[in-house]
Amino acid sequence: DALTKLVSKMEHKLKENEFDYDWVAEFDILITDAIMLYAFHLLEGKVDPESLDPDWNYAFREISPDAPYILEKHIEAGNVSHALAQLRPRMPIYKMSMDLLSEYRVIKDKGGWGTIEAAGVIKPGMEDQRLPEIRKRLWITGELSSDTNMGSLVYDESIVADIKKFQSRNALTADGIIGKGTFEAMNIPVEKKIDALRVNLERNRWIMANLTSDFIIVNIAAFKAYYMRDYKVVFSTNVQVGKTYHKTPVFRERLRYIEFNPTWTVPVSIIRSSIIPKMKADPAYLDNHHFELIDGSGNIVSNSSVDYENLSASNFRYSVRQKAGPWNALGEVKFIFPNKHSVYLHDTPSKSLFNQQDRTFSHGCIRTQNPLSLAEVVLDGSDWTDAKINATIKSRITTRAVPDKAIDVLLLYWTAGYYNGDGIGFFKDVYERDTKVLKRLNEKDTRKPGPDLK
């Protein structure tokens, strides 16, 4: 606002032949400060993520102490816009999000889209009076095939494919059935879509410092994991994440090793809340589920030696470990990137849960649908061939494999991000984190660079 007023005054003075070099100096100072602040926000974001998450551990991109001098050179060369563009995150998703934001702002200026009545399910082959509205909704956002009849009341194959793609893009079950979830996604106003893109563009700016050429992204909100190489998606898989009261944390660490045929040492909290009650109800529970008891000296204790009649959380003195095998809670493989949260990626015997739309089922770790395929990608180029991996799994011997390259693991929370590795998708804010970021983005007072950069 201050910049707009100043420009208006300068234009007035020029028209009235009252040009004042004091005004020029004031404008120069103001525009330089604005450019420096904009550059800082591109590098580190407008919102301080540490103020939202005390466990935040992502590094920010370095700001050169010569930044003011470099800026001055770009001003003299007349290429400030180009210089600022170079500061944007390099990941293609950032540009895709910027482009989509521009498209949605145009749609907003044209009035957005209407609300479609959500009563009743529409299945392929049915006729329904709402189909012209549905086609128009998809047409507005460029998601409608060009060969469809806009006025048709028949839910035919020409639009079924478009609906499935829309469902996939909005983290819905892509079954082609237009029901409650699909109507809700279609009826989200364009203003909300714009807010989501702004929030997640900001999240992109927070995480881009010093990334390895290969890295793994886990998008908690999308229930997806991606293997990235040179900022491109080369592999993706569905995941399950923490329940809303056992949220998967956001952080970054280096992948150290992959463990095939892992054992599982049960956390104390789960022993008390789940294992002990099941032991009391069924003395054969430990044996039937391949658990073994470990005493304080690390020795295996016979399950039959437990006094089940007087068993309680207060007198239980053992660790509980589940043996390696397909029954193991961690499945056949886990990916270790040491962190204070004790969170990692792993296989799971609970495969059926991947069929669910919202996959918040774990205690915080990331259950992975295709972990062996991910392991093959991670170990590509090493002596860990597919045959060696399969033979190791069959042996049921706990074995570690160390990647021959540096691979960072980024646990992120993006409600607008990659879907199936192609384009921008929108995902439910399952942990209700967007509102706080948006509020900070809309505030006038923002964090600024240090005094040495002014």
Give a written overview of the molecule.
The chain has helices at 2-15, 21-44, 67-77, 80-85, 92-109, 131-140, 157-169, 180-186, 190-206, 268-281, 285-288, 371-378, 386-395, 434-442, and strands at 214-219, 224-229, 232-242, 251-254, 257-260, 264-265, 291-294, 300-301, 319-322, 333-336, 345-346, 360-362, 366-368, 399-401, 407-412, 416-418, 424-426. By secondary structure, it is α+β, with helices and mostly antiparallel strands. It folds into four domains: 2-90, no CATH class; 113-188, PGBD-like superfamily/PGBD (Muramoyl-pentapeptide Carboxypeptidase, domain 1); 210-263 and 326-422, Beta Barrel (L,D-transpeptidase catalytic domain-like); 268-322, no CATH class. The longest helix has 24 residues, at 21-44. The model has no long low-confidence stretch (mean pLDDT 90).
In CATH, the topology of the largest domain is named L,D-transpeptidase catalytic domain-like
Look at the structure and give the mean pLDDT: 90
CATH class category label of the largest domain: Mainly Beta
Largest sheet: 11 strands, mixed
Q: How many H/I helical runs? A: 14
Q: What is the CATH superfamily classification of the largest domain? A: L,D-transpeptidase catalytic domain-like
**Whole-number total of structural domains:** 4
How far apart the termini lie comes to: 21 Å
Hey, roughly how much beta strand do the residues contain?
A: 15-25%
Poorly predicted runs: none
Number of strands: 17
Q: What portion of residues is helical?
A: 25-40%
> Would you tell me the structural class of the helices and strands?
alpha+beta
Give the overall shape: globular
CATH architecture of the largest domain: Beta Barrel
Rg value: 27 Å
